[in-house]
């Protein structure tokens, strides 16, 4: 997922979760992610407290500013301070190593995900997949029926593997070609209601 255009009118984000997002999901990944020490525990949840939120933004800065250079020095925008926006972290053995953001759009039932980022040294250990699954599940549990995202072309296959489908043709988005993609959340909401 990528980003909405940067705005200078950034409002400071909330320091603690404001929405009833689901509890953390947790899994164990293999030794390659953990180095010589063995397995790592990966947990996804909404960022808790000001310090963790800063770590969350640091992951985004490192990936979208330093690595990809989509933004100059700061990728935050007005969405970060908007009510209803969720900042989700992926923790590996307690350290914030991945991030994603999600929020409801004006159209009822439609959520958007963006700013998906995993630190380069932590990639290909399913952290990104966990973050996307957590975002999808959370949007569904908060009443969303559909989620959309603007996806960099190099990541379209990654999203397809996670059940997303393409909508329309690629188009420039924030200076880079992106593919709009979507996933239906109704099944998530219904299965939650059925419990
Ligand atoms: C895209 C990104 C979030 C993926 O995170 P990740 O933790 O490396 O991905 P995962 O390990 O969860 O990948 C899950 C599976 O998808 C595959 N995969 C990962 N990235 C892929 C890609 N770009 N294309 C195709 N397959 C991909 C993995 O090999 C893995 O396959 P497996 O289940 O057979 O092992 C990460 O590469 C990243 O942060 N990139 C830079 C920022 C970025 O591009 N953000 C998205 C903007 S749209």
Question: What is this structure, in a nutshell?
Answer:
With 195 residues, the protein is an alpha+beta fold.
Summing up helix and strand content along with how strands pair, one would put the structural category as alpha+beta
Number of helices: 5
Q: Which superfamily, in CATH terms, is the homologous superfamily?
A: Gcn5-related N-acetyltransferase (GNAT)
Number of separate domains: 1
- How many angstroms does the end-to-end distance come to? 30 Å
Query: Per the principal axes of the C-alpha atoms, what is the gross shape?
Result: globular
Q: Can you identify the CATH class?
A: Alpha Beta
Q: What order do the helices and strands follow? A: EHEHEEEHEHEEEH
Radius of gyration (Å): 16 Å
CATH topology: Aminopeptidase
Report low-confidence residues grouped into runs of 5 or more: 2-16, 31-36
The number of strands is 9
CATH-derived architecture: 3-Layer(aba) Sandwich
Attached small molecules: coenzyme A
């Amino acid at each position: 997922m990528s980003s909405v255009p940067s705005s200078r009118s950034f409002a400071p984000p909330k320091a603690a979760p404001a929405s009833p997002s689901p509890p953390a999901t947790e899994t164990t990944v293999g030794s390659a992610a953990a180095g010589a020490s063995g397995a790592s525990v990966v947990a996804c949840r909404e960022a808790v407290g000001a310090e963790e939120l800063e770590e969350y933004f640091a992951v985004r800065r490192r990936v979208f500013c330093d690595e990809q250079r989509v933004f100059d020095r700061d990728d935050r925008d007005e969405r970060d301070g908007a009510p209803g926006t969720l900042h989700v972290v992926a923790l590996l053995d307690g350290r914030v190593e991945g991030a994603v953001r999600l929020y409801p759009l004006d159209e009822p039932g439609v959520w958007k995900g963006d700013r998906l980022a995993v630190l380069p040294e932590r990639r290909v250990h399913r952290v990104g997949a966990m973050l996307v699954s957590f975002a999808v599940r959370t949007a569904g549990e908060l009443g969303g029926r559909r989620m959309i995202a603007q996806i960099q072309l190099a990541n379209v296959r990654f999203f397809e593997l996670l059940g997303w489908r393409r909508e329309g043709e690629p188009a420039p988005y924030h200076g880079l070609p992106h593919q709009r993609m979507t996933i239906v959340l109704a099944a998530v909401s219904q299965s939650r209601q059925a419990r």
